[in-house]
Amino acid sequence: MLTEDHAGVRLPHIEASPARQVWRRVVIAAVVLAFTVLIVWLDRDAYRDGDEIGITFLDAVYYSTVTLSTTGYGDITPLTPGARLINIFVITPLRIMFLIVLIGTTLEALTERSREEFRVRRWRSRLRQHVVVCGYGTKGRSAIRALLTTGTDAEHIVVVDTDPRAVDEATAAGLTGIVGDAGRTEVLRRTSVEKARAVIVAAHRDDASVLITLTVRQINPTVPITASVREEENASLLRQSGADMVITTAATSGRLLGLSTDQPRVVAAVEDLLTAGRGLDLVQRTVTQSEVGLGPRQLRDVVLSVTRGGRNLRFDDPLIGTLESEDVLVVVKAHRGPDGH
């Protein structure tokens, strides 16, 4: 079984249905039996059934069946040295194969455990610069969709959730899942959070978000943490706990609901901006060499903010002046598909 360090880690995989596994074993057993019958039947004159030399086709099927199943009544026996050599070097390996098929469920379970432990060890040794998503509810799934859309590979996303069904859903989507409470140190260490490039906290409750943030910050003091909080009054507590960015879901949703009454097009535009992969996209990028020395309004993309020297400046801040090579921009640009449109 998996060691404690690997328990709860579920890598993405495709599992065959029980009926398909049973039928596969039945087909293999039937092929082995048919092949054995053919060998015995072709050498039928080298066998004895009681006092009679030679056997019928039915005798060949009977002998093959009792031999492969290790019943071996002994009423039909090979006579010639050639027939005995065939029994030793051909039929005996077929008998072993037949038995493996019959007890395949147990062997497969043991093999699967060993293989899964090996996969987990290899995964952990290669895992770095990944994103840990704590919580696979509505917020967590939306965050992952955005990550995938902006270029993060599924193999670089690790999901942590206390609900095994949510983790199963994540692994079915090609993600790696870990069952457990992300507020516990041993669970977060299974995600290799100390090597992560970012952590997203999308817990269902604000107190859980605070505990997860504190635990992550204790293990990895430098990893960027983005956390969601339901109540705006808890946002400052999350920042004090170590979150670099806090998104207030209830307040944000409430503002959009209020705007939708009198300014529905504003809400539509915001939804378009927040939905990556279509319409308008929000993009963070560095200044290109050709843009150095230009003003934010001179760019083709619509500049919303400029980050310079650790300070975030709005597009209309006079301190921006002209763009510098170290500047990081947040821009609005039209999404272009694979065909460039």
Protein architecture, described:
With 341 residues, the protein is an alpha/beta fold. The protein is 45% helix and 18% strand. The chain folds into 3 domains: 126 residues, Orthogonal Bundle (Helix Hairpins), CATH 1.10.287.70; 125 residues, NAD(P)-binding Rossmann-like Domain (Rossmann fold); 65 residues, Regulator of K+ conductance, C-terminal domain (Alpha-Beta Plaits). It contains 11 helices and 14 strands. Helix 5 links the parallel strand 5 and strand 6. The N terminus is likely disordered.
Rg over alpha carbons: 32 Å
Low-confidence stretches: 1-7
CATH top-level class of the largest domain: Mainly Alpha
What would the principal axes of the Cα set say about the shape? elongated
Just name the CATH architecture of the largest domain. Answer: Orthogonal Bundle
- Beta-strand level of the residues, as a percent range? 15-25%
Structural class: alpha/beta
- H/E topology pattern: EHEEHEHHEHEHEHEHEHEHHEEEE
Widest β-sheet, arrangement of strands: 1-7-6-5-8-9-10
CATH topology of the largest domain: Helix Hairpins
Count of individual domains: 3
Tell me, rounded to a whole number, the average pLDDT: 83
Biggest pleated sheet:
7 strands, mixed
Number of E-type strands: 14
Distance between the termini: 52 Å
Structural key phrases:
Rossmann fold; Alpha-Beta Plaits; alpha/beta; disordered N terminus; 3 domains; 341 residues; 4-stranded antiparallel beta sheet; single chain; Helix Hairpins; 7-stranded mixed beta sheet
